[in-house]
Design goal:
By secondary structure, the chain is α+β, with helices and mostly antiparallel strands. Helix content is 42%, strand content 19%. Strands 2-1-6-5 form a four-stranded mixed beta sheet, covered by helices on one side. Strands 3-4 form a two-stranded antiparallel ribbon.
């Protein structure tokens, strides 16, 4: 990777930071050669702060670091795309991103996975999801089976609302089962992609 630091008079190149998992744009910073080197060596995204006139590792005060996953350079060799995993809110205001966006995947199913993961820690008396997790993986698997049978039964009729309702129930419980087995939807997608490429 050959970065052209001479393109700009201050020797800094723009660095767009994107969440490695959700693909959301988190922030924009500037890097010089030293900042890029420190980022690659430490694994923590480090910028050159124009206001402080020194290197600045994101999260050095707040603890909300950006764990480096990948560095890409654009076609003109003068702008970086930093793919990172945020360890907390990115913006100094406390927002997920510097554009006040929520940092979750736009795909609702991935968002739903995050909600399921949060709710499994809740009080089983107050959360249906937590109650299912408290019963163990066998009960969750049984529930998936029950929902699959109900979907098959509704498929034989012509009631759109009932059919789609049962399809949603099956998908929801399937996501719970994946979580209970320490897998996620992306793992299933990866298998499908691999099969598709053959």
């Amino acid at each position: 990777m050959k970065i052209d630091y001479t393109k700009y008079s201050d020797g800094l190149v723009p660095a767009v930071v994107q969440d490695f998992k959700t693909q959301k744009v988190l922030m924009l910073g500037f890097m010089n050669e030293e900042a890029v080197k420190k980022t690659e060596e430490s694994g923590l995204v480090t910028f050159y702060s124009r206001s402080r006139k020194r290197l600045w590792t994101k999260g050095e005060e707040s603890g909300n670091h950006l764990q480096l996953r990948q560095v890409l350079i654009d076609c003109d060799n003068d702008t970086l795309l930093i793919k990172a995993e945020p360890k907390g809110p990115v913006c100094h205001t406390g927002a997920d991103t510097c554009w006040s966006e929520k940092n979750h995947a736009e795909d609702f199913l991935f968002y739903l996975e995050q909600i399921i993961n949060l709710r499994k820690q809740a009080d089983p008396d107050k959360s249906y999801v937590a109650k299912l997790f408290s019963r163990g993986v066998n009960k969750i698997a049984q529930k998936v089976g029950e929902e699959a049978v109900e979907l098959v039964i509704e498929a034989k009729d012509e009631n759109k609302d009932l059919f789609l309702g049962e399809a949603a129930d099956l998908l929801f419980h399937f996501l719970i089962l994946l979580n209970a087995k320490d897998y996620n939807l992306q793992a299933v997608i990866n298998v499908l992609k691999e099969r598709h490429s053959k």
